[in-house]
């Protein structure tokens, strides 16, 4: 099932290098302070690039520059080989779903969804019955058909968001910008729409930029994911790259629910074994990380370990780190156990059975074991991943 | 033990006791405005209705005469003349003020230079007392020596007479001109404030969708501004119909009755003819007409324009 997607991705990036698709080169923008610094991104035709980062990272500004609502201070934009910056906003054929919805308050839901088609057609007779059918289909898909005659003022935030989404998806643009398209929907609808929108996007050829503050959403919707923080691109890669080989602490922190555990410490080599030492806890590094560790011996480093790569073991098990139970949250399908390791709180995502064995008694001693495949090393000073510290292809169970 | 806490309501937050426990509290809050309205508005109004149903001449209220005052008024050509004049006045002045005001507001809403200087200047005609506006234009348009009369009207032989106010054909239009001068800036600033308060989101969406200027004006700006346009337009309509000060100073209703609006006529009936009963009837009739008109207008505007 992965194979055709991979091929098409390869084909798409090949096309991108030929000038097809969207290319962002060295784009910078500052208002009073720098907002975007030297952004370089490529989005192939039909490719979905998920842009994720904390709020204030510059996602919306980048979308607005692409839509022509802001001008970049420097850098170049090209769409299908043509200079995009030279084209005024109204002629870029961009469909932009605004994070703030930007619905027309005096128009009904249906009129709002119809509006971009009317603007493009420049006279209402040109918008035929097929468009109205398409709108009906779109309203059905987003479960807002029964609201079609309401004014935006009578809608909830999530409903408005769906109207704005419908208004963007109804178009056949040259570039599609979705700025936090599903962030205000309830979990059930978000699940449904993630898949439905991906299906629709797969059937069209415009490059898509999907911005979201939710790292996990980015991993699920993007063919590739770009992580932006503080106006800089931290990493661009496939969801697998981003998840398994985060380029920096920033990237690692953004992904995962619960978030990744980060342990500050130092590296020591002793009798052919390299250890990571956090206070009195010593963790022997797996072979894959030793090479990276050699370069950074005695430097301050940070060990990253996903909550699903920590196991609860018997206190007296070989190599077990001594910890204490801090809290135990059962979720039914899995449990999240928080443990206290010498003053540092770590999250452990584990099975209900293991969590039950850990019990509820606060302060109870527990043993911790780190699964070697899930370990990542970062330079504490720069926040970058140590070179060669890339985790191998993981055999861990999917992080449910 | 419980008796104490029952007797003294414990106030956990240091706030006043819940207002709903004191039924008179809301009435206390609105009392000052209610008293003022009663004294300066309601009582005089009721007294006017009372006067309109009595023979009241030369300051003496004599006998109850039913609707005789109204019949007298409605059969008097002078009353209908005044209504006609007010309608012409309103029908020309208000639409022009409205259009010029809206156009000016759209210009102001662009990032034009010197806007911060222009706006206080635009307030000046509106801030001037109407009586001063009247005097100002009386001087400007005075026969022979008036600044505009001398330099423009006479120099280019634009009118036969020396003063526009002396011509039964022109006097009304001169008054309309003054009204437009006085009130267009107000309309402009009111509409400008409305434009400034419109949300930017729809404009951004329209810009991205490639809507042109005409589409944006008619499909976004105008509909979003409609409630304000309706309210300001209605207020100006009512106000212009009741125009008194400038007319009183500039023409006093003349020449003859060529500029005699209902307010001027009521004033003459009271203080020149001393027929207070009939003047009161006129005031009541105008009030009834506006009351009916505003109600119908409100209903229509609510349904058709999504205003209010």
Keywords:
heterodimer; A: 400 residues; alpha+beta; OB fold (Dihydrolipoamide Acetyltransferase, E2P); 2 domains; 6-stranded mixed β-sheet; 5-stranded antiparallel β-sheet; 11 helices; B: 308 residues; mainly alpha; two-stranded antiparallel sheet; 70% helix
Give unreliable regions of chain B as ranges. 1-8
Coarse structural class of chain A: alpha+beta
Number of helices of chain A: 11
Helix content of chain B: over 70%
This entry's quaternary arrangement is heterodimer
Q: Which sheet architecture does the biggest sheet of chain A show?
A: 6 strands, mixed
Termini gap of chain B: 55 Å
Largest interface: A-B, 27 and 19 residues
Structural class given helices, strands, pairing of chain B? mainly alpha
What's the count of strands of chain A?
Answer: 20
Percent of residues in helices of chain A comes to 25-40%
Q: Whole-Å distance between the termini of chain A?
A: 20 Å
CATH fold type of the largest domain in chain B: MetI-like fold
Strand order of the largest sheet of chain A: 6-7-8-3-9-10
Can you tell me about this structure?
The complex is a heterodimer of chains A (400) and B (308). Chain A is of the alpha+beta class and 400 residues long. Chain A folds into two domains: 3-245, Rossmann fold (3-Layer(aba) Sandwich); 258-379, OB fold (Dihydrolipoamide Acetyltransferase, E2P) (Beta Barrel). Helix content of chain A is 29%, strand content 31%. Chain A contains eleven helices and 20 strands. Chain A has helices spanning 2-17, 59-67, 109-121, 129-141, 157-169, 187-202, 215-221, 239-244, 249-254, 287-295, 352-358, and strands at residues 22-30, 34-43, 48-52, 74-79, 82-83, 94-97, 175-179, 208-212, 224-229, 232-237, 261-270, 273-278, 281-284, 300-305, 310-313, 321-330, 335-341, 344-350, 365-370, 375-379. In chain A, helix 3 (109-121) packs across helix 4. The longest helix of chain A has 16 residues, at 2-17. Chain A is globular. By secondary structure, chain B is mainly α. Chain B has two domains: 4-52, no CATH class; 77-304, MetI-like (MetI-like fold), CATH 1.10.3720. Helices cover 70% and strands 3% of the residues of chain B. Chain B is built from 13 helices and two strands, in the order H-H-E-E-H-H-H-H-H-H-H-H-H-H-H. Chain B has a two-stranded antiparallel ribbon. In chain B, helix 4 (77-109) packs parallel to helix 8 and helix 8 crosses helix 10 (213-241). The longest helix of chain B has 33 residues, at 77-109. Chain B is globular, with a radius of gyration of 26 Å. Chain B starts with a helix and ends with a helix. Mean pLDDT of chain B is 84; it is low at 1-8. The interface between A and B is medium-sized, with 27 and 19 residues.
